[in-house]
Amino acid sequence: MGTDNQTWASEFILLGLSSDWDAQVSLFVLFLVMYMVTVLGNCLIVLLIRLDSRLHTPMYFFLTNLSLVDVSYATSIVPQLLAHFLAEHKAIPLQSCAAQLFFSLALGGIEFVLLAVMAYDRYAAVCDPLRYSAIMHGALCTRLAITSWVSGSINSLMHTTITFQLPMCTNKFIDHISCEILAVIRLACVDTSSNEVTIMVSSIVLLMTPLCLVLLSYIRIISTILKIQSREGRRKAFHTCASHLTVVALCYGMAIFTYIQPHSSLSVLQEKLFSLFYAILTPMLNPMIYSLRNKEVKGAWKKLLWKFSGLTSKLAT
């Protein structure tokens, strides 16, 4: 670490998506709109759950956590990405790079565990509805949420520490849209195969283990649904899980493509696109999925809009 070619640079240059100015301006407008929709959608979901007492249930407690994770994840990456679209010098200081890596990795891990927790909640609701309130009591929900946040943060802290202890070459150009862990590791002057194995192992623990729990939960859920005699009962039970299942497919699918398969099979462009999808599109779609596919959320929206329109009419008169 003491030699000149093994010290960290004070800043890095993110190469981003394109060097063409017109393309960068177009991308700036597109991603700005998507980021604003993401922040607005997730904040409205949190506000709606807070204001409507009918949504004060375990499912929506976890959905609040998911919305907070989504908007935080997007905020850890997108504002810096937008600033670089309009900047000639696309630099990010070392400390900011380390912070970005930590928060994006932590929030991604939190989301995976949280989705497994939400799957368990749906399992309890469908497979043991009479004891649902006793099983998913407030203390357990709080512990499960805390476990999600702590496990993702510890995993990220470990990887961030290991990554920034590697001896680095003088190259300070990161061929990515952000300080993503695989892109930063490429700057090392040493063989990083052990680091990539560590990333894969932790991905299996923090990604595949929750995914297996999700699959086990849904195997039991589907088995229970198929035993329901009435078609309406089966439809209602499946509808209870449809939104969560859609979000699971989006989040886990992109993460598996990025971190589980052999790194050499992905091009740099594919890595960038997957990161963009996960940082912008998924957080933007999640509140839409829960709003459009969930009758309780749609009912709460109608109730809130009706109250707002009534208040507006009173003020106008």
TrEMBL record:
Keyword Transmembrane found:
yes
Alphabetical list of SUPFAM superfamilies matching this protein: Family A G protein-coupled receptor-like
Tell me the CDD domains matching this sequence.
Answer: 7tmA_OR2F-like
Q: Where in the cell is it found?
A: Cell membrane
One matching Pfam family, short form?
7tm_4
What is this entry's stated membrane topology? Multi-pass membrane protein
Transmembrane domains' residue ranges: 25-48, 60-78, 98-120, 197-219, 240-261, 273-292
- Keywords for this entry? Cell membrane, G-protein coupled receptor, Membrane, Olfaction, Receptor, Sensory transduction, Transducer, Transmembrane, Transmembrane helix
One GO cellular-component annotation of the UniProt record comes to: plasma membrane
Origin: domain of life: Eukaryota
Q: Gene3D superfamilies, per this entry?
A: Rhodopsin 7-helix transmembrane proteins
Return the InterPro entries for the record. GPCR_Rhodpsn (IPR000276), GPCR_Rhodpsn_7TM (IPR017452), Olfact_rcpt (IPR000725)
**Predominant localisation class:** membrane
The chain positions of domain G-protein coupled receptors family 1 profile read 41-290
- GO MF: G protein-coupled receptor activity; olfactory receptor activity
What the record says about family reads: Belongs to the G-protein coupled receptor 1 family.
Name under which the protein is recorded: Olfactory receptor
Kindly list the organism's lineage. Answer: Eukaryota, Metazoa, Chordata, Craniata, Vertebrata
